[in-house]
Design goal:
By secondary structure, the protein is an alpha+beta fold. It has a four-stranded antiparallel beta sheet with strand order 3-4-8-7. A hairpin with a 5-residue loop joins strand 5 and strand 6. Helix 2 crosses helix 6.
């Protein structure tokens, strides 16, 4: 039975999260880390179809993320139309070409060498879905007025993290792609003025032969400080 109480005029429901003995917590946290540590950013995609229902479930998982004042300041645009994917690729490659041929610093180019990336982005057409994440800087009300959102970048960043974990959990692969500037996405996808492109995520199966850079993540003592 759900217990509800009213606090200063607003309903609250009883909540109890799952708890585990200490040894089980250790085992569960370790196994989750080891599983998530297998996630990689992938640029070699298959064009094999993925059920749209899966994508919807992934986005529902992403939308469970906490957000400032529970505003949920995100819109996920799911692109599967080949003509639109082609248009996005063409515009993204224009921006990426300019970045690789003048916008990026020498230090940036040097840091990207282990990844062996360049301005060509064929995965934007190959992947069965592109999820374009837009952040809502503010809300537009039906009467034309605006309403503030809070901690927008933090909120949408957490939601994207949830989304990447959900994609990995579903047995699919993804890439966080950020062609800069990304304003062309607003135009192509006809988004309102209060939404701004945040992240472009191709989603699908990995290609039959998928290769990723041989990288090493930082050790625990490099990222954690105890006081």
């Amino acid at each position: 039975m759900t217990t509800t109480k009213i606090v200063h005029g607003h309903p609250f429901v009883a909540y109890r999260h799952e708890e585990y003995p200490a040894d089980e917590m250790v085992a569960r946290s370790k196994s989750f880390y080891e599983w998530l540590d297998q996630r990689r950013s992938v640029r070699d995609f298959s064009d094999r179809p993925v059920p749209l229902e899966v994508i919807h479930h992934l986005l529902q998982a992403a939308s469970t993320a906490p957000s400032g004042a529970h505003k949920q300041p995100w819109t996920f645009v799911v692109v599967s139309d080949p003509a639109i994917k082609k248009q996005i690729r063409e515009e993204a490659e224009k921006e990426e070409y300019e970045s690789y041929h003048g916008r990026m610093s020498e230090e940036w180019i040097e840091d990207l060498k282990p990844l062996q990336t360049d301005w060509s982005k064929p995965f934007l057409e190959t992947a069965p879905y592109l999820i374009v994440v837009f952040k809502k800087a503010y809300n537009l009300l039906p009467n034309g007025a605006t309403r503030n959102n809070y901690y927008v970048n933090e909120s949408i960043g957490i939601a994207c993290g949830f989304l990447l974990a959900a994609i990995h959990h579903a047995g699919l692969v993804a890439l966080t792609h950020t062609p800069s500037p990304m304003n062309f996405l607003s135009k192509i996808l006809d988004r309102p003025k209060n939404e701004r492109p945040y992240l472009l995520i191709p989603v699908g199966y990995g290609a039959a032969e998928t290769y990723v850079p041989k990288l090493k993540r930082k050790e625990l003592d490099e990222i954690v400080v105890h006081r």
